Amino acid sequence: MNLYEFEGKEFFKKHGIAVPNGVDIIRGMDIAKAYQSLGITDVVVKAQVLSGKRGKNNGVRFCSSLPDVESAVSDLFSMNVRGQYVAAVRIEEKLNIDQEHYISITYDTDTQQPVLVYSNEGGMDIEDVENELIQKIPLDIRNTHVQTDIPFAQELWNCFLQEDCRVVEINPLVKTVDGQWVAADSKIALDDDAFFRHESWKELEPRTMMGRPPTDREIEVQKIDAGEGYYRGTAGKYIEMDGDIAILFSGGGASIANMDALINEGLQPANYTEYSGNPPTEKVYELTKTVLSKPGLKGLWIAGGVANFTDVEQTFKGIVWALDEIKPTYPIVVRRAGPFEAEGMELMRQCAERNNLNVQLFGKESSMSQTAAVLADAVKKI
């Protein structure tokens, strides 16, 4: 789960990282009362979105009066920032900045361990900073102490470990003219698999990777992997989109490429979803039923690579269970292979026969992108 700036700063304060004095506004709040509670004049008004580059996309305003603040807050709530829904607006003191630095902790996929990244060149264009100006310090999760004098390095490491984070970032890490170090912004991504360890995370407002509130279907799918059976495979990933082609992907490696293949064929996905880790029949049934509940669908693509240990028969039982109930009339294209694939495909054939479904089945002899073209042809013939 990615946190909004104002949420991340609460985590920072908990671990001793200084942040600017500020107040958070949600729709309907008294803007004047919130602004006046700060007791300062010059402020920064920032849209709370999950994407970056707010400053370059009119999502950050500098104000010095109540009318300016009220106008900025209202304007920010009325817009999208890089296509992202504005969940809240943060008003905070304008810092008197002397220096801008950068610090983060994330996982290095090459070393397969956390790494602290630091540069004394921070700000909006950190990605353009030359490599020789960036320090990378490997960290060991068995050692809770950081051997460095980089500001807030130890506090950030404490936050990373104790809060089960995947990423913690301060950009910019500001040194004010009076010598104080302050986290002017925050970026935190939490490890979703650690939710059971953090009761307080339940208080975080639901959000999606699309930067908007979750739809009813997205909320429903999130429940699939909850409860005692959370560890039995994954089937609770679902992002709703504007298209009309339902998607049921298995595995994660080729899913994004499959989305591109679908779009290249002139089709628009109604959702992104995937199940993996050999989920039980019941989980796949709940996911399929929710995916197919979206109105206006014109096709269904069930695709995945060659499974290593996911039981194709058992997962297909869940899909067939939902198809028996819904009996869709639009074309369905299936491409799957792996353990018990023959039994799974037979279940699909029987389901198509008894429900008079328009289903085409493919194994590993056909690429997934080829079956996207098959689905496109079938949809065009409707």
Account of the 3D structure:
By secondary structure, this protein is of the alpha+beta class. It folds into 3 domains: 21-93, ATP-grasp fold, A domain (Dna Ligase, domain 1), CATH 3.30.1490.20; 97-196, ATP-grasp fold, B domain (D-amino Acid Aminotransferase, Chain A, domain 1), CATH 3.30.470.20; 214-380, Rossmann fold (3-Layer(aba) Sandwich). Helices cover 29% and strands 26% of the residues. It is built from 10 helices and 16 strands. The strands form 3 sheets. Strands 5, 6, 7, 8, 9 and 10 form a 6-stranded antiparallel sheet that branches. A 6-stranded mixed sheet has the order 11-13-12-14-15-16, sandwiched between helices. Strands 1-4-2-3 form a 4-stranded antiparallel sheet, covered by helices on one side. Helix 9 links the parallel strand 15 (332-337) and strand 16. Residues 237-371 form the ATP-citrate synthase citrate-binding domain.
